[in-house]
């Protein structure tokens, strides 16, 4: 089966004929091989800071 990853994705292919892990954007997946699609798109995290100003934040 021929698989193609989207713009922000990669294919991780393992199994018969591959010694470790093969990373690709497009590949033929042969019988005995498995393919996992993983996404590399950026994620933003928000958090609340209980401080009066940026100057009073402790430096850790």
From TrEMBL:
InterPro entries: Flotillin_fam (IPR027705). It is found in: Cell membrane; Membrane, Caveola. The keyword Cell membrane applies. One of its GO terms (cellular component) is caveola. It is a lipid-anchor. Signal peptide: none annotated. Its main location: membrane. The keyword Cell membrane applies. Keywords: Cell membrane, Membrane. It comes from the Eukaryota. Belongs to the band 7/mec-2 family. Flotillin subfamily. This is Flotillin-like. It comes from Trifolium pratense.
């Amino acid at each position: 089966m021929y698989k193609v990853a989207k713009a922000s994705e990669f294919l991780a292919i393992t199994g018969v004929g591959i010694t470790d892990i093969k990373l690709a954007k497009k590949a033929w997946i042969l019988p005995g091989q498995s393919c996992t699609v993983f996404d590399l798109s950026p994620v933003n995290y928000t958090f609340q800071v209980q401080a009066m100003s940026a100057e009073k934040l402790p430096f850790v």
